[in-house]
Here is the input.
Amino acid sequence: MSLNQFTGDALSEWMKGDGPESDIVISSRIRIARNLKDYPYPMLATNQQSQEVLDQLSAVLENEELETISNFSLVPLSRLNELERMVLVEKHLISPNLVNESRNGAVILSENESISIMINEEDHLRIQCLCPGFQIKEAWDLANQIDDIFESQLDYGYDEKRGYLTSCPTNVGTGIRASVMMHLPALVLTQQINRILSAVTQVGLTVRGLYGEGSEALGNLFQISNQITLGQSEEEIIDNLFSVARQIIEHERAARHKLMQESKMRITDRVNRSLGILSHAAIMDSKEAAQRLSDVRLGIDLEIIKDLSSNILNELLVMTQPGFLQMNAGEKLSAEERDVRRAELIRQRFGRF
Amino acid sequence: MICQECGKRPATLHFTKIINGEKTEFHICEACAREKGEMIPGTSNGFSIHNLLSGLLDFDPSSMASAKPQTIRCEHCGLTYSQFSKLGRFGCDSCYKSFSDKLDPLFKRVHGNTVHVGKVPKRSGGLIQYKREIETLKKEMMTRIELEEFEQAAKIRDQIRDLEKKIAGA
Ligand SMILES: [Zn+2]
Ligand SMILES: [Zn+2]
Here is the structure.
């Protein structure tokens, strides 16, 4: 299996199908952090120790039960060039942290890219499962199953009182981070977002923007995740996130409805202006692209725009990131060159003008 | 992750500020944090974990004076407590034991809890699983006794005894 498979397409196979509530919830993700007993965490491990960890964890790939879940490929980070690494980050298959800090870092990817297992990131093992739409419980079931398979062959660092031991004190206990990525343009437009997000943070959840840095919510995309990992069971954590996300979905729906009732013309104008700009602009920075794509996506969901699929926007959000643009161009690009390429690519993709 | 101020050194401080409900994250190195005095953890109004961590450990004069935390060292990996508080990361499993006395207040602030109640690994955690079950059963037994459902309570008592035998035999 070639690496090209994972860096060629912007959309992972799993993203091409629609999940439940996919007009608002883009994806649901579970990440489980685990460490092997008796080995120092990657931050302090010697080259030999991290190699041993890599060997032990990749040996689990031979496990028959794991084979029934999917075909997996092991990709050592050392085999990737800078751009390929960037692309995997932009697809959320690996973390920026794995790129920057790890020694003997590697990732195990399932065929459809819904499962990515990072080795020697901040912890020895990070199992990540992604599902399209609002399927946080399904993602947990899958991740839990994979965790059981690893655990059946390896001894994890575990303490009766503290639970699963992790490098960062924020992950200790269950080691799980459950998150849903939501597109909330109507809550932003109607200026309810801050009130809702601050309510969310008061029930032990956190919110961040899509592409982490600076935490600005590019394209009205928000990732909501659990903050607490100690003293709550996995099921409580998932249920809490599930019910809060469900309420936010309802609020976003109500806000969209209200917008269409009270300011249909203004929304229609905004959506179509963004569509026009995306279809014709010659220079497009990433911030504007994200905002305009969000408008168009809202227009599709509200059926103001009828002849575009919402998938094209998920795809463009990834494809217009720096790594993808440069991969696509086959060379390194300056920020200005990227803005031109980005505009060109979006125009092509809409393909009607 | 590289420091967002100087773009050179690795970022070791990560924290969040909330201004008018908007969260902003900072990833900076120690040198830059010192320069930008206002960003030093403990003074921000955010509730980032590393902020709390350093706020709790490095910048709390009472804990500095009483326990000299910088001299505590994990025997297994060599990480000192003051390194831990700066990095916000443990070095190995043993750090949890080495810094044990200091961790309850930290976890209390980060998670609101200090004790794990979730999943138990099947292979190494068999005994823990039994102990958990016994605790749950004991509570249930007390409830039954209070409700004067003695027959039920007796059944539960037998279940507890079975589990205790399993633990003794293991
Ligand atoms: Zn710096
Ligand atoms: Zn240690």
Remarks:
- Chain A touches chain B through 57 residues (CB under 8 Å).
- The two ends of chain A are 37 Å apart (CA to CA).
- The longest strand of chain A covers residues 25-34.
